Each structure stands twice: as structure tokens, then as C-alpha cells.
Amino acid sequence: MLKVLLSLSVPALSIILLTGCLSSPEGVEAIDGFDKQRYLGRWYEVARLDHSFERGLSNVTADYSIREDGGIRVINRGYSAEESAWQEAEGRAYFMEDEQRGHLKVSFFGPFYGSYIIFDMDKLDYQYAFVAGNSTDYLWLLARTPTIKPELREHFIERVGELGFSPGGLIFVDQAFYGPQALNGPQAPNQPQALNEPQAPNGPQAPNQPQGFNPQPAAAVN
Questions:
Q1: Which domains does the chain show, CATH number per domain?
Q2: H/E run at residue 161
Q3: Which of 14, 159, 196, 202 could form a disulfide with 9 if both were Cys (CB 3.0 to 4.6 A apart)?
């Protein structure tokens, strides 16, 4: 059964900062030339720094779509092996400046917002994004596919090390329910099916895996 938790978050617009801080870590600059429409859809969490609200979660995804008020709807999901259950949280995000700069504020609880800073990404095909919070304690690597090439992994580790993050603390997320190995491996019970979402691009799909959002024309950001 799906378990909804306001405290679950991933990068993919998924940072919960109880302090409501909207600043940036020193030296971390949001990208320019950002295209909101191309960012919509499903992203897989490939790597993160450890924090309490995602601790123990695997198979983490973030789905982005457009809200009626023009903001971005954020749905984060992850699987807890300890609880043998999926956890899910819904949040909302808005641009801090103009929509062509990758700095947003995101909230999963009331009026409290935290920074969501896209500081490096594949601007050509929108296949990966490096995301930070308000400090070097919050960091994610998101990708359109559950796994990435070794070259991208090395680039990520080198880049974040230069910016003062701790590469040694990175967790590379188990995406077994979504990767090729899922076709032959055990499946999580009661995986969510909701929202009639598209399959992950260009990759084999696990049976009964959660489906992504079906973005609306001017609406949808995983």
C-alpha cells in the first residue's frame, strides 16, 4: 500500500528544508537558459547525499508536471525495504527568478520552502541534472534513465568535489525495480500503478512498475 509522507523528497524538485532557506551553497550557481517544458516528466534519482527523509529508500523517482497556478507539481516516490512499502510525497515548486534560470523554491509542507538549484545539466537532450539544496548537505544526481554511463558518474563526482560537497558521502541509489535486472529479479509487492504514466525512455521495463505522468500540453515536468 502506498504510504504518503510529507517528509520524502528527491531532487528532482524534492528538497525539504525545515528552515525554509532559499539561499545557495557558496560557489554553486543555477544554470541559465533553462527550459521548463523539457524538464517535465520522470527523473530517476541516481545518487544523493544521505539525509533523514530519504534514508533507506531505493528505486527513487521524481515526476514533474504543471499546476493550475503555473507552478510545478512534484511527486516523489521511493521504496522502503524495511517497511516493505512504497512511500510518496507531493509538493509544489516555483521559480525564484525568471523561468530561464534553474533556481526554484519547493515546498512539501505548508508555507515552508527550500532551494532547488540545478547547477549542471545536459542542455542538449535534458538527460541528466545535478541538483543542490541550500547547503552542501543536499545534493542529487537525476537522470532520465535508471542507470548512467561511467563517464557521467565520474564527471559528477569531480564536479561536486570542486564545489565543496562530500563525494565520499554519496549514495548511488539501487534502481533494481526499473533497470534491466528487474526483468529477472524479485518485484516489490503493491508497486503503485497510478496516473497512466509513460514508460522510461528507451529502456526495458520491469513488470508492474510504477508508471510516470502523462504531461499535459503546457503542464507536466521524474
A1: 3-196 (2.40.128.20)
A2: helix 150-162
A3: 14
